[in-house]
Design a protein that fits this description.
Number of strands: 8
Shape: rod-shaped
Radius of gyration: 54 Å
Distance between the termini: 155 Å
CATH topology of one domain: endopeptidase fold (from Nostoc punctiforme)
Structural class: alpha+beta
CATH architecture of one domain: Alpha-Beta Complex
Largest sheet: 6 strands, antiparallel
CATH class of one domain: Alpha Beta
Strand content: 5-15%
CATH superfamily of one domain: endopeptidase domain like (from Nostoc punctiforme)
Helix content: 40-55%
Number of helices: 7
């Protein structure tokens, strides 16, 4: 124990100057504080120097109304383009139909409706006879303005058949429909005329019609597709 106690005493008895800052250190601290307070770190700018203007980033946004207007304008332009293309196609189709009609009629060597009227090969007739002759032309191509077996339109077909029985029919579905007597559908027989707005053909029984219907479809028997139609007997 005599050896331990002096050792502990020696360890704890540190010199007092170890915790006392030197006088020079205090002086250095006072100097730093004096520099700060005197403004030694301040910065001055010459009066002739101008600051650059600050530009802000800008942006714009399209409103809902503007988007709707742009969409409507695009739709209108597309519709106008489609209408122009459809009109051009219709004009081209009409020209092609006229050319086909002209060529077909020139190539046909048989009698015209006028020739048949002059000869009247079958004067007097029954509806059954008229319908029997009309059936012979099934398969003839549709040709706009056609009135011979080279090609028929709806009223040209009626005109050509009736000419063979000495009946002079105009080349018009409306005029032909106004020539005869309108009868109830219940009394219709094959050979009567089925009339609708802008179209005409022979009644084929059972609400069917023998007619030249449209371009690309040959003369044939088919259902009566008009919403409003009536029967006329010549």
């Amino acid at each position: 124990m005599a050896l331990v106690v002096p050792g502990l005493f020696a360890t704890m008895a540190l010199p007092a100057y170890a915790f006392t800052p030197a006088t020079g250190d205090l002086a250095n601290g006072s100097s730093l504080q004096s520099l700060k307070e005197s403004g030694a770190q301040s910065l001055s700018v010459d009066a002739g120097v101008t600051a650059n203007a600050v530009a802000r980033d800008g942006y714009s946004a399209t409103t809902v109304e503007e988007l709707a207007a742009a969409k409507a304008a695009a739709a209108a332009a597309a519709a106008a383009q489609a209408a122009a293309e459809a009109a051009a196609k219709a004009a081209a189709d009409a020209a092609a139909q006229r050319a086909t009609f002209t060529n077909n009629q020139k190539s046909f060597t048989g009698p015209s409706a006028e020739d048949l009227l002059a000869a009247a090969p079958q004067p007097g007739s029954s509806l059954a006879q008229i319908y029997s002759v009309a059936l012979k032309y099934q398969g003839v191509p549709y040709v706009y303005g056609g009135a011979t077996p080279a090609g028929f339109d709806c009223s040209g077909f009626i005109k050509y058949v009736y000419a063979q029985f000495g009946v002079n029919m105009p080349h018009s579905s409306t005029a032909q429909g106004n020539m005869g007597t309108r009868i109830p559908v219940s009394q219709a027989v094959p050979g009567d005329l089925v009339v609708s707005d802008g179209h005409i053909g022979f009644y084929a029984g059972n609400n069917m019609i023998l007619h030249a219907s449209r371009p690309g479809t040959p003369l044939r028997i088919g259902p009566i597709y008009a919403d409003n139609w009536w029967i006329v007997r010549i």
